[in-house]
Design brief:
Distance between the termini of chain A: 9 Å
Number of helices of chain B: 11
Order of helices and strands of chain B: HHHHHHHHHHH
Number of helices of chain A: 14
Distance between the termini of chain B: 43 Å
Radius of gyration of chain A: 19 Å
Shape of chain A: globular
Structural class of chain B: mainly alpha
Oligomer: heterodimer
Helix content of chain B: over 70%
Number of strands of chain A: 2
Number of strands of chain B: 0
Largest interface: A-B, 42 and 42 residues
Largest sheet of chain B: none
Strand content of chain B: under 5%
Strand order of the largest sheet of chain A: 1-2
Largest sheet of chain A: 2 strands, antiparallel
Helix content of chain A: over 70%
Chain lengths: ~325, ~290
């Protein structure tokens, strides 16, 4: 018997998210941090689509996150001041890159897959870093702004109103999360679970495993690039650090920390990670050591994550 | 033009030697324990900094000999305390753990030795160019290449001629059988990890003589080392060696014709290898 009913849990999560700008500040947070948690949660949940539900370890998701961000930033800075259009461009760039790289790596498994995703992820870091005439190099792309969204009958001012931006992020988050939940419940999602549980058996059943892993990879990178777009919009800024391998590691640790076998796990992981990071980096210069120590402690003592622990307790 | 080309080929060979040294250590650990050691670059930095600290007491040669052993000792300790617990578990966890370690080491070196770049003094007779025509060919560079070559030959002699090497190679193929035959696999993996870290430490000392010292010195070397392993083929040490030298020289030659692409070319090589031969140039079929 689970402790709480699944529907009640879902309702609770959404209720907390919708009311967050009102209670989060009360407990010492600020609205921007709330938006950042949602964005990272989306990225970690997208990664978990691949990691937790397909059983494939990617350590290079920051690349597609960053591509989404750079795509968005460049359209807004150089081409056309429209937030939705810029996001669309970012998403297309990230997803297409993933779709092209996918076939090179889906034949690989385990550690080898992880290593190749890391290495390919670095390609985009180098491009962002080296091609400074376009990407701004190490300094990143700044001096541009997200634009208010014109809904026809009214404009939604996400530029000046932090809360409005939070709700914009929440709306995108809800769409993406809903889509992922729908996909996971579909026959496609069940097939992915079958591959995760026993790849050889899935293959014997006639499932084209490599193609499914490729599809799962592209879906996952699609959602991660959505998160990347929002990330660039959040601070009207993007730089190569958004795309580097340590960012990929952050996504993975968020998924693991929250519990990668549960749908909401990465959200909880992202919240804990970012709140801690926010707290630590404002108190010490050596926050990197603490983050590293955090990684080590989670792996050694907490590998199932928060929700994994709860589920196991309620199962016994 | 010829001089320029030669200059960059030699440069590429040296960089390739570093990649190969790093990648051989990574590969040893990966083959026997299934762990991708993200902290390898960190161990490299420790090697350089320890040599820097030892230099006033032991001189260059003393530091060069002692420092890699100290780093290997640290590596052995880290394996015993942390990494050993993760064998047999999802590779995800060892990746995350070494990832965290890499953070801690980078921050630790910055805390102890400072963020500023430190010079590393090499003997002056080594720093001088060998001839005026080939001004780039300093004694140090020749010495480095010779030393790396000697160490690599030594490594292969250990692997092919000693009992420890035999066990490491056998364990790479089938660790369970090796264990059943009465070899203490825990000790074997421990020593093997130390051997891999020793190579990183040595690369660290040599690199700091050429590039100076920064906490992030390993960062630029670790990604190409991964690529060297992928290109050469997982499970094959000669492949790793070949992969490292290949991408080093390739990026050196590219520097002559199209400098901006010198980093990109190694990724192009990796992509080409993965398309044509996913297991890597000298990798075995069906290992991963």
């Amino acid at each position: 018997m689970p402790i709480i009913d699944k529907r009640a849990a879902n309702l609770l999560v959404w209720l907390l998210l919708v009311t967050a700008p009102y209670w989060f500040v009360g407990v010492g947070g600020y609205v921007e941090l709330g938006s950042r948690i949602l964005i990272y949660a989306l990225a970690a949940m997208a990664l978990n689509f691949l990691l937790g539900y397909t059983g494939v370890l990617s350590f290079g998701h920051a690349a597609y996150f960053g591509l989404g961000g750079y795509g968005t930033a460049m359209v807004l800075k150089f081409l056309y001041p429209s937030t939705p259009l810029a996001m669309l461009a970012g998403i297309v760039v990230g997803t297409v890159a993933a779709a092209i790289i996918g076939p090179l790596i889906v034949r690989l498994r385990g550690v080898y897959f992880a290593m190749c995703t890391i290495a390919f992820g670095q390609v985009f870091y180098f491009i962002a870093f080296q091609w400074s005439s376009v990407t701004g190099g190490d300094d990143g792309l700044s001096a541009w702004q997200r634009q208010p969204i014109n809904l026809g009958f009214t404009t939604f001012d996400i530029l000046h109103d932090n809360k409005a931006f939070y709700y914009f992020v929440l709306a995108v988050f809800a769409l993406c999360v809903g889509a992922m939940a729908f996909l996971l419940r579909s026959p496609f999602g069940r097939t992915l679970l079958a591959i995760r549980e026993n790849e050889r058996r899935a293959r014997f059943l006639g499932i084209p495993v490599d193609r499914h892993i490729w599809m799962s990879w592209v879906v996952s990178c699609f959602f991660v690039s959505v998160a990347g777009c929002l990330y660039a919009l959040l601070s009207d800024f993007i730089d190569p650090r958004a795309i580097r391998w340590d960012q990929s590691g952050n996504f993975v640790i968020m998924a693991v920390l929250g519990g990668m076998r549960s749908f909401w796990g990465p959200l909880i992981g992202a919240a804990i990670f970012l709140v801690l990071q926010d707290y630590i980096s404002s108190h010490t210069e050596n926050w990197m050591s603490f983050v590293g120590l955090f990684f080590v402690l989670i792996v050694l003592f907490f590998p199932r994550g928060v929700l994994g622990l709860i589920q196991r307790k309620s199962a016994s | 033009m010829t001089t320029l080309l030669l200059f960059n080929v030699v440069n590429g060979l040296i960089i390739g030697a570093f990649y190969a040294l790093m990648a051989l250590g990574l590969s040893l650990i990966l083959n026997l324990s299934g762990v991708i050691n993200f902290a390898h670059g960190g161990f490299l930095a420790i090697g350089g900094y320890l040599a820097y600290t030892l230099l006033p007491y032991l001189g260059f040669w003393g530091a060069l000999v002692i420092s890699p052993f100290l780093v290997a000792f640290i590596g052995v300790a880290v394996e015993r305390v942390l990494i050993r617990r993760l064998y047999g578990r999802d590779p995800l966890y060892s990746l995350l753990l070494t990832f965290g370690l890499a953070f801690m080491i980078e921050d630790g070196t910055r805390f102890i030795w400072g963020a500023q770049s430190k010079p590393f003094q090499i003997p002056s007779w080594l720093a001088a160019p060998l001839s005026t025509d080939l001004f780039f060919l300093t004694g140090y560079r020749v010495f480095m290449m010779a030393l790396v070559a000697a160490v690599v030959i030594g490594l292969f002699v250990i692997l092919n001629r000693t009992r420890l090497g035999l066990r490491i190679r056998a364990g790479t193929l089938d660790l369970e059988t090796v264990s059943v035959l009465g070899v203490n696999v825990r000790v074997l993996r421990n020593l093997n990890f130390g051997l891999g870290i020793y190579l990183a430490g040595l690369a660290g000392v040599l690199a700091s003589g050429m590039l100076g010292l920064q906490p992030t010195v390993g960062d630029n070397l670790i990604m190409p080392s991964f690529i060297a392993i992928i290109v050469g083929g997982l499970g094959s040490l000669p492949g790793t060696l070949f992969g490292g030298v290949l991408i080093g020289v390739a990026s050196g030659i590219t520097t002559v014709f199209f400098p901006a692409a010198s980093e990109a070319v190694i990724y192009v090589i990796m992509a080409a290898v993965l398309i044509v031969r996913p297991r890597g140039l000298l990798g075995e079929e069906g290992r991963f």
